[in-house]
Amino acid sequence: MARDLLAVGAGRAEAAAYVADAARAWMAAGCLAPREVLEVQPAPHAVRRVRLDELTLDLRFSGEASPATFDPVFGQLYEAGERGAGDSAAGRLDLVGQDGLVFLLKDGEPLAAAPPPDASALLKAELTEAYVESVETGFLAHGALLVRGEATLIVSGAPGAGKTTLTLALASSGWTYGGDDIVRIDPDARVRGAPFAAAVKSGAWALAARFAPDLLGLPIALRADGQQVRYWRPARLADRAPRAPTAVVLLARQAGAAASLEAIAPLEALHALVESAYAAHWRLDGDALAALAGRLETATCARLVYEDLDAAVALIESLG
Fold this sequence. Notes:
Blueprint: H1 2-7, H2 12-28, H3 35-40, E1 46-52, E2 55-63, H4 67-74, E3 91-98, E4 101-106, E5 109-114, H5 116-134, E6 139-142, E7 144-148, E8 151-156, H6 163-171, E9 176-179, E10 182-185, E11 191-193, E12 198-201, H7 205-208, E13 221-222, E14 228-232, E15 247-253, E16 260-263, H8 266-275, H9 286-298, E17 300-306, H10 309-317
Parallel strand pairs: 2-3, 8-15, 15-17
Antiparallel strand pairs: 1-2, 3-4, 4-5, 6-10, 7-8, 7-9, 10-11, 12-14, 13-14, 16-17
Helix pairs in contact: 4-5, 6-10, 8-9
C-alpha cells in the first residue's frame, strides 16, 4: 500500500501515516492482528470461566492483557472453584495485550481490538451476544429486574427513558439488582435477570453517582456506538432462581411531569415484553403465551410517568 501511495506522489511520511491509520482501523475491526498476537494465544497466563445458564465460556488472558482490567466488570459471571481435568468450556475468547491494545479473538479468530478501558465494552458486547445465542428455552426481553423480599419487579422502557439510572436508584434503596438490560422469561413465565454490569452513559453520570458514589471513579469505556459508559457492578446481586413477576412497570419520562404510577391493562404489559422478545432456539407458543398472560393478570402492571427520579423511586417503593 505504501508503495502505491508513493507511486502516485504521496510523501514518505504521509504514506507511512496513512498505512498506520489503516492498520489501526483494520485491527479495531478485527480484520487484522499482528503475528505475535496470534502466536501467543496457546499460552494464556490466566483463565476465567464464565458460566451463565447454558453459556459456558473461557476467557483466556495472554500477553499484556490483565484480568484485573476485566474482573471488576465481569467477575459476577465467573464460575467459582477449581476445574477438573478434561473440564472444557463450550467456547473461548482470547484477550491478548500487545502494544497498548487488547485484541479480542473468538476460537482463535480476531474479532476486534481496543485500548484496555474500551476492551471492556468489546467483551461486554461479545458476552451478551454469546449469552443470547446460548439460551435454549424461553425468551429474552429488554428490561431491568430487581428483587425485594417476595417482590420481583420488571422495569421496561425505550432507550433514554432512564431505566439504568432508575435501576441504580432502586438498588440503593433496598431492592436487589438482578440486571439492567436483559430479563429471561421461561416457558412457565417465571423470570430472572442477566446480571451483567450496568452500562451507565455519560449523560447520566452526575445523577447516577448520587446513588452509586463509586461510579465516578470507574474507568470510562467507549462503545462501538460512540457512547461513553462506565460499567457499574453492584455489591449485592439477586440470586438467579426463577421467580413469578409481581410487578411490571413501563417507563414514560416526560419533562415537567409530576410523578405518577398509572395502572395499565396486563395486555399492555404483555405487549411491551413480547415486543422486545428474542429467542435463538425457541418459539413462543400458545401455552407459554397463556402462562405469561396468567402471571401478568396477578401482577401489578403500571406506567410510571416521571421527571424527578426521587419521586419515581418513592412511587415504586409501594410495589415492594
